[in-house]
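May I ask for a sample protein chain and its fold as tokens?
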Amino acid sequence: MKVNKNVTLKLLVVLAVMFGFASCSKKSNSKNSSTATGWKINDKNGGFQYASNFKKQDAAPGLIAIEGGTFTMGRVQDDVMHDWNNTPNQQHVQSFFMDESEVTNLMYMEYLDWLKRTFDPNQDNYKNIYIGALPDTLVWRDRLGYNETMTNNYLRHPAYKDYPVVGVNWIQAVEFCKWRTNRVNEDILEKNKFLKKDAKLLDASAEKSFDTETYINSPTLTYGGDEEIVLKKEGRGAPKKGAEGEASEAKNVYAQRSSGLIQPEYRLPTEAEWEYAAVANVGNREYNLYQGKKKYPWSGSYTRSGKRQVKGDQLANFKQGKGDYGGIAGWSDDGADITQVVKSYPPNDFGLYDMAGNVNEWVADIYRPIVDDEANDFNYYRGNVYMKNKIGEDGKVEIVTSETIMYDTLANGKIIARNIPGQIAQVPVDEKETYLRQNFDKSDNRNYRDGDKQSTRFFDFGAEDDGEKVADGKKMYDSPQHKVSVDTTSSEMVRKYDKSSKRTTLIDDNVRVYKGGSWRDRAYWLDPAQRRYFPQEIATDDIGFRCAMSKVGPKSNKKTAKGKPKSSR
């Protein structure tokens, strides 16, 4: 009888273990089985492949997570300028990522080094790629000031490596963001063995370079179609031999958006995102209400610290008054006369540095005096120009080559590459994308409701729209029209400055917003709500930039009591 009890006990243990394994197996299989069809997901033989184990988007290099929310965008304090260009309006911003600090000289030098190694500036068809990316170091010059030391040293000398890059116009900042996107994703794919190890250093060239969108849309054309560099992931839909001994085409062997590896693009933050991140109301609220209004990125109405250890120290780098950029020698108000090393001052409540002072920062938006919150109060942004991939005669995406590089000559004569080899050529969206849509009806939306034909006082709302452009004298924003052309006989560049005395404004579709205040500005401009504008093709010694990236997935990664991400209701 005793033996029978032992046998029974052992049998129960075995059954319990088997049941546990079965239960675990059932749970594990449920993640890899379709709730729509019951088919297996990520089958080693092929079929539907998906990143079932994806948990959350990791912060890309240099970025800080910013949880989105609602805030009052625009003026919350004084309007001493009386320009009425920052009227308060309530906006909601989705969660996103933003650079912890401004882009530094060291970061930008890495970009220039890559361009120089990949696209030899000694070759005529590539020289303007590198030259067009160079910051304008002459921005430091002044008619009545001696600043040649900065002109010659600020960008490249190691003493300034952690200072914010300046002399970069808006277009150059956008191109840096594109480059950074590609280098980060290139590194991610290499680490996950989708690209040959060290190919980015040993094999990259003008004819063989990596572009994120090219890899996603046509991986076999990446790196010039070199199969030794663009690897197929083994064991994921590997080709199988059929009855006749012929191997079928391999599928699901390249990384895709659905793989969860490829990061969204780095980009300039929108004005709404930048202002939301700068004001950082998270440290100034109770429940769902803001406690007062913040004049600066920090709490309080003063620019000096009230903390005992550093009481009286300035919280940002800005101009104190006439002829006072840094204080008295031996005891400096803000520790800087020009720009300052990034992260030299305390961060705001989001953990972001220098959101006031040091340098102003480009944002993505086209400037208009009014933020049209009646049209949109969610992720507001003026500047959308929708493009699509160009399809060649063979039905495949058209890749830019050394023969098809496009260059833009800016109004100031600077030549900048519109695209570079390895990228997919872009064209404006057309009727195929806009027909019968309610949310957009054309490619260029920069003028929507403010500057287009319907916005002018000469527009006849009862007449039929003939689609023609508004005449110069009837434009909403009649700005100067500077032109640059090339003399066909001498091949020299001809600059035509608009000398008209009838122009009424400097606003057009090529002026961008910049925010934040700088080492040259008084404290008034440190208010995150203040906004100014500048031509996108011109650089200065007090405007830099930082990058942002959209967040995919839930608004917040905070855990609830059940351990699931907090709802984004």
DSSP finds nine helices and 19 strands in the chain. The first helix runs from residue 2 to 31. Residues 222 and 506 are 42 Å apart (CA to CA).
